[in-house]
Amino acid sequence: MPPHTRVNMADVARRAGVSMATASRALSNHPHVAAETRARVLAAAEQLSYVISPEASRLAGGATDRVAVVVPHIARWFFATLLEGLESVLREADLDVLLYHVGDEADRRDFFQRLPARRKVDAVVVLGMPVRDGERARLELMGVHIVAAGGQVENYPYVSIDDAAAGRQAVDHLIFLGHRRIGMIAAVDPAEPGWPANPGRTRAYEQALADAGLPADPALAVTVPWGGLPGADAMSRLLGLREPPTAVYAHSDEVAFGAIRTLRRAGLRIPGDMSIVGIDDHPMAELAELTTVAQPVRDQGVLAGRVVLALLAGEPTAGGVTVPTRLVIRGSTAPPRR
Question: I need a surface site. Which of 121, 164, 205, 283 has the fewest CB within 10 A?
Fold first, then answer.
């Protein structure tokens, strides 16, 4: 370092090979820093003759003991359960959670526009929502750790299920039962205009049919907005075909609930006349006797919280954590009627 050059936190972080936030925590003796990382930062500070100022450390991105959580929906059970698991881990570590609800396009645009000024957090966790290119750039301007939970977001550590694998469990179950004409109700999130239905779950349907040697009839695949009522409308469309399916695969349990209502109003028996399977294992799925593919939603939040703690401590983390799903067979699926 040339003489008379002022050494700052960024210089120490660069020399130690860590982020500025981690360097600040190490120098302020924060408990969530690995011993090896702390020693490396202290050695770098000594080499550079850096003297820490508590106020400067805070302004330069030091520890705030706060984590921002960005969520598109609060009332939906999936997001609430995910948040519950995440918050339980962060609370136990004495970290505060700042919740940012981006419920519509205007909220979302305003949040990401103002985001770089909100540097009073140590990390940002994005729950169950895709991050667009422009939004990704705004997140990275903060210079803090970013984690995704309940969905895969490239370039960031994430905790998620394998949607394609979950879809295969659902569709393969119907094929195993003997169904050969299988419909799909795909769902898009109204909060994500222009974003396609879950590509992994759609790909699973297409690949499962191809692997079983079954023809792909475009009329059997219906895409609607997420929710029970759109699911009911989608089932009406499928029943209106000259040759309706004998089984239906729904992208989510909520959509499947709506489809079940239409079937019952049409006087059709489940599963005698029509089988239906969903994904998620919604809290009401057992009462509805819905066969589904269960995903551990709360566990994903817990694991995401642990990833945040590891990053704040300067510990190595996996790029992504994929949690397993399992088929739960209930009373909504059976072999097709002969």
Answer: 283
CA 271-276-281 angle, to 5 degrees, is 120
CA distances to 98, 280, 296, 336, 338 from 270, rounded to whole Å, are 44, 20, 26, 11, 15
What gap in Å lies between CA 281 and CA 204, rounded to an integer? 18
At 154, give phi and psi (nearest 5°). Answer: -60, 150
Give the Cα separation of 96 and 94 in Å (integer): 7
Mean pLDDT of successive 10-residue stretches along the chain, which has 338 residues: 60 87 77 84 82 46 79 92 97 92 81 66 89 78 86 82 97 98 93 78 97 96 95 98 97 98 97 98 97 97 95 86 97 93
Which stretch of DSSP H or E encloses residue 160? strand 158-161
What the chain holds in terms of domains, given with CATH numbers, is: 9-59 (1.10.260.40), 66-161+297-323 (3.40.50.2300), 163-294 (3.40.50.2300)
DSSP state of 335: P
DSSP state of 138: H
Q: How far apart are CA 151 and CA 163, in angstroms?
A: 9
Q: Identify the residue whose tokens are 């006349």.
A: 273
159 sits in the region (left: phi over 0; alpha: psi -120 to 50; else beta) called beta
SS3 of 38, please?
Answer: helix
